[in-house]
Design a protein that fits this description.
The complex is a heterodimer of chains A (258) and B (394).
Chain A lengths: L1 H17 L2 H15 L5 E11 L5 E11 L7 E8 L7 E5 L7 E6 L4 E5 L15 H4 L7 E11 L2 E10 L6 E9 L5 E8 L4 E13 L3 E11 L5 E11 L18
Antiparallel strand pairs in A: 1-2, 1-13, 2-3, 3-4, 4-5, 5-6, 7-8, 8-9, 9-10, 10-11, 11-12, 12-13
Chain B lengths: L2 H9 L9 E13 L11 E15 L4 E12 L7 E12 L3 E8 L32 E10 L2 E9 L25 E2 L8 E11 L2 E11 L4 E6 L5 E7 L1 E13 L2 E11 L5 E12 L8 E11 L11 E10 L7 E9 L5 E11 L3 E11 L15 E9 L1
Parallel strand pairs in B: 8-12
Antiparallel strand pairs in B: 1-2, 1-21, 2-3, 3-4, 4-5, 5-6, 6-7, 7-9, 9-10, 10-13, 11-12, 13-14, 14-15, 15-16, 16-17, 17-18, 18-19, 19-20, 20-21
Classes of the chains: A mainly beta (258), B mainly beta (394).
């Protein structure tokens, strides 16, 4: 085991010397992606606690599931449970490595499946501080990268990288991402608006490992620095490889998800 | 299929032990009419209460589910608006790339906003709202197949539902009023006629397409003036057997949605074609806020022209959608439908927002302006109204 650990440690400085900051940034992002490959499918429940600058709170309950798609972006489905007036509303997304994602919204009162313009990705998700693009599948191709420096975050050695969204409709000019050097998972992201001002900070907390491989943060805290609003997203009941397939992510399936 | 047999069927479902959950809402609603009523028996306003609970249970690792959604409205002014319906009593079995739906259900087809031409499975619950978007539960057996080439839905629809109409005391009614006790049918089997429908739908990149064919009792009646038992002149609905072929198409191109619905209806003495199409363009995050503003326009055409027994035959809809994306999910949709052959104009406004975590307030306004006597909408021309509703969800 020890020798295996030494090998990448020896190679690392070499690759650092050889690579430009762009190559190094992409290399780190690719490794994050590589380590989070092969999970096939997962599902979990989500709770969002929205808080405005006056401290007023509002709760959202949702169920989420994702399907890994080879050679393209993942498919995901989010079903709303609370607030009660939107119970049964469901959002189906097919993300793509390049170009716009495909999205359909199911409105249970009308039993209507509506194809929606997925470019509205910079908008807030359910009135929260998370934008649709923050929650969508993080494909490597959606950003260009730049390695900044090795750093420490709460005594954890991290890589600090900067990534620029490729999509001109993104709400961000760039993001700064702190990535755990050992586990290759994001610990913190700063989002900069189109005017290059700091807009939000996302902190990943309570990481747990599933199937001895896949790390998932059970809590994600998003602070908006410009409005004083925040959202705490809590993930529970994570389950991997639950036997979901394409049919569970079809337009037709929206009509029976509840 | 009677309601009793459906309830019996529900109890016989394999592997089911009751233990699902209830949700739903109770709603209070006030409609205030801004003009004097045309007829003595009508009132200036109406108060009503609606209750729509929903029972849902899934079992067999979510392969099977049962949904039961009864609906009740009590109205202070119009007896015909006080009504009960089973919106859903549906058993779903999801197999491998196929699905069976049996019972009473609701199905929506289509893409446009102002008029839903293609949507034909369910009958309109017209007393609920003159916009026709509220539907009655339809007995159905639906078999769906999902393949790489799209989704194929096969429907057998036993049991026809009559459209609901405001009664003699209700506003938003025709003159004479519609007496649904005198309904007649082209088919000898009347409301027992077995209707069939088939639909293929598919998503190809930015395109969503649906092709469908329906054979059965028309959901749109024609009307015959008759004298009822009380000696009043009334309209008697008559339902014909029709064949309807339809296309619905949407292209999603960035912030643009392009939409088209087209139908050909045959089986009648005078077959006809109708279509509606247009666009919705969304300005995302207007002026660096979270607000989205959508601009909509749709053109409505019916080749029967002025002879069409529908109000929209050469009309243009222009609308504005406002989505605040706030914590209260505030929304507003407003628009005008203009008859291009006359001065007739219809104004619509619908807005709603959540209050706290389990209440929702909504406001609706509809005005009919300069509608000429020969237009089918003329009957509503002194029924402009504002509706306020407050619902508690559980």
């Amino acid at each position: 085991m020890k020798s295996l650990l030494i090998l990448p440690a020896l190679l690392l400085p070499l690759s650092l010397l050889a690579a430009t900051p762009e190559e190094r940034g992409l290399e780190i992002a690719a490794e994050v992606d590589r380590r989070d490959t092969g999970w096939h499918d997962w599902q979990a429940t989500m709770t969002m606690l929205l808080r405005n600058k006056h401290g007023e709170e509002s709760l959202r309950h949702m169920r989420s599931r994702s399907l890994e798609v080879e050679d393209d972006g993942d498919k995901s489905l989010i079903v709303f449970d609370r607030p009660r007036d939107v119970k049964g509303t469901a959002l189906l997304s097919y993300s793509h490595k390049t170009g716009s994602d495909d999205q359909w919204l199911y409105l249970p009162a009308l039993k209507r499946v509506k194809r929606i313009a997925s470019r509205n990705k910079s908008g807030p998700f359910m009135g929260s501080e998370f934008a649709y693009e923050d929650l969508s599948s993080q494909e490597i191709e959606k950003y260009t990268y730049q390695y900044i420096q090795d750093d420490q975050l709460d005594d954890t050695p991290v890589f600090l990288i900067e990534r620029d969204p490729v999509d001109p409709n993104s709400g961000y000019s760039y993001q700064r991402v702190w990535i755990d050097q050992q586990r290759y998972i994001p610990l913190k992201i700063e989002f900069y608006d189109r005017k290059q001002s700091l807009l939000k900070t996302l902190e990943f907390r309570d990481y747990r490992q599933y199937l001895n491989q896949y790390w998932r943060a059970n809590r994600m805290f998003m602070q908006n620095h410009q409005t004083g609003k925040s959202t705490l997203l809590t993930w529970e009941k994570y389950a991997f490889r639950t036997g979901l397939d394409e049919q569970d992510f079809s337009k037709n399936s929206l009509k029976r998800v509840k | 299929m009677s309601r009793l047999t459906l309830a019996g069927m529900a109890l016989l479902l394999p592997g089911l032990t009751l233990g699902g959950e209830w949700s739903g809402y109770v709603e209070g609603q006030i409609r205030a009419f801004t003009q004097e009523p045309q007829f003595d028996e009508q009132g200036d306003s109406t108060f009503s209460l609606a209750f729509e609970p929903e029972y849902y249970q899934s079992w067999d690792r979510n392969q099977q589910s049962l949904t039961f959604t009864p609906f009740l409205r009590l109205d202070s002014q119009d007896e015909a608006r006080t009504h009960f319906d089973i919106r859903e009593l549906l058993w779903i079995y999801a197999g491998d790339r196929w699905e069976l739906h049996a019972g009473v259900g609701k199905v929506f087809w289509g893409v446009t906003e102002a008029l839903h031409l293609v949507d034909i499975i369910n009958q309109t619950d017209l007393v609920e709202n003159p916009d026709g978007e509220k539907k009655l539960g339809q007995p159905m057996l639906k078999l769906s197949f999902e393949q790489d080439w799209g989704t194929l839905d096969l429907f057998a629809l036993p049991g026809f539902r009559q459209r609901t109409f405001p009664g003699e005391d209700g506003r938003l009614r025709s003159q004479p009023w519609v007496d649904t006790d005198l309904t007649t049918y082209e088919s000898d089997r009347e409301e027992q006629h077995l209707d069939f429908a088939v639909r293929w739908s598919h998503s190809l990149g930015d395109w969503d397409i649906g092709l469908a064919h329906f054979r059965g009792t028309s959901r749109d009646p024609s009307f015959n003036p008759v004298v009822n038992r009380d000696g009043d002149l009334v309209l008697a609905p008559h339902y014909e057997i029709i064949q309807q072929t339809s296309l619905d198409l949407q292209a999603t191109k960035g912030d643009w949605l392009w939409k088209l619905e087209a139908i050909h209806r045959g089986g009648l003495d005078d077959p006809f074609n109708a279509a509606t199409g247009g666009f919705e363009y969304t300005f995302v995050g207007v002026a660096e806020t979270d607000i989205d503003i959508g601009m909509l326009s749709e053109y409505i055409y019916d080749d029967r022209g002025d002879d069409a027994p529908v109000p929209f035959e050469n009309d243009l809809f222009i609308g504005l959608r406002f989505t605040a994306n706030d914590v209260q999910s505030s929304e507003l949709l407003t628009g005008l439908i203009k008859d291009l052959d006359s001065d007739a104009l219809m104004f619509n406004l619908e807005t709603n927002r959540r209050i706290g975590s389990s209440w929702k307030g909504a406001l609706q306004a509809r005005f009919w302006i300069d509608v000429p006597r020969e237009d089918p909408m003329h009957a509503f021309s002194s029924d402009d109204y504002i509706e306020i509703s407050l619902a508690r969800y559980f």
